Amino acid sequence: MAPPTTPQTMKERILETADKLFYLQGIRAIGVDTIAAEIGISKRTLYNHFPSKDALIAAYLERRFVQPRPSDKPPAEQILATFDSLERRFAAKDFRGCPFVNAVAELGPHDRAVKKIAVAFKESRRAWFRERLSELGVANADALATQLVLLVDGSIAQDLVRDDPAMARAAKEAATVLLRNAGVDVGDGGDGTVKQVKRHKRAPQ
Amino acid sequence: MAPPTTPQTMKERILETADKLFYLQGIRAIGVDTIAAEIGISKRTLYNHFPSKDALIAAYLERRFVQPRPSDKPPAEQILATFDSLERRFAAKDFRGCPFVNAVAELGPHDRAVKKIAVAFKESRRAWFRERLSELGVANADALATQLVLLVDGSIAQDLVRDDPAMARAAKEAATVLLRNAGVDVGDGGDGTVKQVKRHKRAPQ
DNA sequence: TTTTGGTTACACAGACCTGTGTACTTAGGC
DNA sequence: GCCTAAGTACACAGGTCTGTGTAACCAAAA
């Protein structure tokens, strides 16, 4: 249908389409026929690239597992920016929750492979927060990192059922309180809207 | 199989079994045959009580929608006790996340009926927090209530993928910080473990 | 006794699913 | 020209699912 405009490999085309359909409509809701038809290839070709649907599901989740890009901005800013980017993603109409949580919810507790990668993803997110907090010299970075991922996952779950991007904003406000309570300087509150004239610095602790 | 020991109505038996199977294994994963077989009734009987699987799903979710019992304990204690009860539920091996979030994740965004009841449930939880906070005289009870449900849902999502009841504890600690920041007296920290000898009261605000 | 309502057993339609088998085509490299 | 690799078309096996149709059964009420 569009072979000249797609310099990507066939495997990537399959994964891209599977990602879109699995994520937006659910893994169980989409059959391999549907994916093949969407690309315009035969089901046989799909099975030549992936031995089974389970393998395709695993590849789909692994492809979703991307590490956040390293940034040179101050750690506190990076942490709070997480919630801004979350809010932007919530506002997009093709957002449908966390693919890892959804996959675990959908495929049940018996699917070891899916659960394993979901745990790895969640842990990597928590580790990212912990590293930023350590850079800030926060005492119990580990506990606080856990609390921050709770806010992230909580806002995702809430947005999934309520379609309300303001959940990300609420999470950011809560995160700001938690950070400030841990002695982190978050400027005027970190919510961007209020940072106007006086940006009084506040001594940690 | 056990007709004399079940004084409950047939409809309730069906719902009870559907609840167990839907919740533990997933709605899409369980067919009506499986439910009927589990009870020991014919599929025909099941369809005599529920016109379709969709109706059964809706009834399942509605049955899960229970209001928290009114309590005469202090509001702050009630709020924090939420996280204790959450931790207890996480520890139980038959806990598998929030049935409403799971249903939305599983059935997709197009299922209006499911989404509607899920939203109603989430809103009722948020309203419960808001009422307790209003009783405490918290200024922006609404915003804080939202933040608390984020912690609840976040810990549920995290426990779903990680099977770690400590997530409820982390949520409780974060909630304690948020409450104290709003001027609520939460005693020594509200985590139960530390409340030993000196329980110095702290003036609100 | 007769009727009636709930239940059972069981077949079946129609749809969808995963995965395979097979023969055909097409394009590029030798 | 020939060979190989990749893709296509298409049928099909074997399974699951929802929902219905039908005839028989059984117990309690009338």
Give structural notes.
Two copies of one chain form a homodimer. By secondary structure, the first copy, chain A, is mostly helical. Helix content of chain A is 64%, strand content 0%. In chain A, helix 1 crosses helix 4, helix 5 packs across helix 7 and helix 6 packs antiparallel against helix 7. Chain A is elongated and about 60 Å long. The interface between A and B is large, with 46 and 46 residues. Chain A binds a DNA duplex (30 and 30 nucleotides) through helix 3.
Number of helices of chain A: 9
Instruction: Please state the oligomeric state of the protein chains shown.
Output: homodimer
Which strand-content bin applies to the residues of chain A? under 5%
Largest interface: A-B, 46 and 46 residues
Q: pLDDT below 50 for ≥5 consecutive residues: which ranges of chain A?
A: 1-6, 192-205
In short, what is this structure?
Two copies of one chain form a homodimer. By secondary structure, the first copy, chain A, is an all-alpha fold.
Give the arrangement of secondary structure elements.
Two copies of one chain form a homodimer.
Chain A: H1 10-25, H2 32-39, H3 43-49, H4 53-64, H5 75-91, H6 99-107, H7 112-135, H8 141-162, H9 166-181
Helix pairs in contact in A: 1-2, 1-4, 4-7, 5-7, 5-9, 6-7, 7-8, 8-9
The structure holds a DNA duplex (30 and 30 nucleotides).
Tags for this model:
mainly alpha; homodimer; disordered N terminus; DNA-binding; 205 residues; 64% helix
